[in-house]
Amino acid sequence: MEKLNVSEIKETASANPNSYILHGQISGIHRKLTKTNKPYFEIEITDSTGSLKLKAWQDSNAFTQSESLQGKEWVKVQGHWSNNEYGIDARDWEIQELETKEVEETLAGDRRTREKQSEDYEYIKQLCHSLGDPRLRTLCLSFLERFGDRFRRSAGARNLHHARRGGLVEHVAQMMRAAKALSEAYTVLNKDLLITGVLFHDCGKMWENSFPADSYTMPYDSRAELMGHISIGTEIANTLWREIDTDTIEEWKLLEPPSEKVRIHLIHLILSHHGKIEYGSPVLPKTPEALALHHIDNIDAKLEMIFQGYEEQEPLSEEVYSKVWALESNIVKPLEKFDG
Fold first, then answer.
1. Which carries the bigger pLDDT value, residue 14 or residue 291?
2. How many CA atoms lie within 13 A of 54 on its CB side?
3. What is the rounded average pLDDT for all residues in the chain?
4. Phi-psi bin for 328: left (phi > 0), alpha (psi -120 to 50), beta?
5. What is the DSSP secondary-structure string of 188-219?
6. The predicted structure's pLDDT at residue 278
7. 18-33 and 50-57 as β-strands: parallel, antiparallel, unpaired?
8. What are phi and psi of 140, to 5 degrees?
9. Single pTM value for the model
10. What distance in Å separates the CA atoms of residue 233 and residue 201, rounded to the nearest whole number?
11. Helix 111-129 and helix 134-152: axis angle, to 10°?
12. What torsion, rounded to 10 degrees, do the Cα atoms 129, 131, 132, 136 define?
């Protein structure tokens, strides 16, 4: 029986319902009742590519096995996978605990995801090394040295977009590619500032949406709940800036614009990147770089949502899928690229 990851099952089960094996970690388990008051369990399984939910109905082997689960177990799920009106589901499925070696392999992630996230992280490092402003370059490299490991295991969000281990690196790398291209089209933009803003804009999510080193289960952090990622990101940027202590480096004292002005503009990018007060930003974007960062962030998040929607939403016709909540509408298959 073929072993697939979560992403592959979402992609394959619709077109080719069949029996597959999935290795992952239980990231949620809830006992619920049907409309006729019959109990069932909803189990969430997570791996490096994402998560999916399964229902264990009463009188099934899966229901009996689910009664003894505590959550966070590493398991092998074996069953007949398909896509029905409620999304991806499995019939006659059963679970077994993974061996230690299997847990290590699952935690390391599938080869494609590992390679992509490694390439994305290297791209981020290279772009940070290429920054012309020595203050912003030093700040970015200091961030990667201090927080690189935590950064690489954080998600871009808890639910809506890049909601997977390493998703934050994917989100930042793609935003940097967009920021670099936009800076080449609009040469008046301060590329160094914009790239640095991309790196720091969501860095508070290293607490808000971070995974432990040995788990796919995302905990809730009291610091993140009380402060939010924008406030935490601002504090991280200010702390690293003070540690660099730009005022004591003689050659930097003569640089224009002055170091303090550079810091304030960077902080503005972090504070304003949600774009609106009602969306959580304490201040609106008021500079070209702040406007660009907000829209680059929004574009990458929403494109991720629509592509994810093609995998997860219920097909309403051959080309139309059910509504993606954050996009506020049904979604339609894109036009294929012209093949000359």
1. 291
2. 28
3. 91
4. left
5. TS-HHHHHHHHHHHTTTHHHHSBPPTT-S-PP
6. 93
7. unpaired
8. -65, -45
9. 0.84
10. 7
11. 160
12. -100
Tokens 């077994």 correspond to what residue? 96
DSSP structural state of residue 58 = T
State the chain's maximal CA–CA distance in angstroms.
76
Distances in Å between the Cα of 117 and the Cα atoms of 24, 121, 167, 314 are 19, 6, 8, 29
pLDDT digits (tens, 9 = 90+) for 292-309: 999 999 999 999 999 988
Distance, in Å, from the CA atom of 13 to the CA atom of 22, rounded to the nearest integer, reads 12
Instruction: Choose the weakest-confidence range: 18-22, 98-102, 108-112, 227-231.
Output: 108-112
Please state, as a whole number, how many other Cβ atoms lie within 10 Å of the Cβ of residue 72. 13
Query: Contacts from 300-305 at CB under 8 Å and sequence distance 24+?
Result: 300/161, 300/171, 300/174, 300/175, 300/178, 301/156, 301/157, 301/160, 301/161, 301/162, 301/171, 302/161, 302/326, 302/327, 304/156, 304/161, 304/162, 304/171, 305/160, 305/161
Find where tokens 């991280």 sit.
236
- The letter for the amino acid at 162 is H
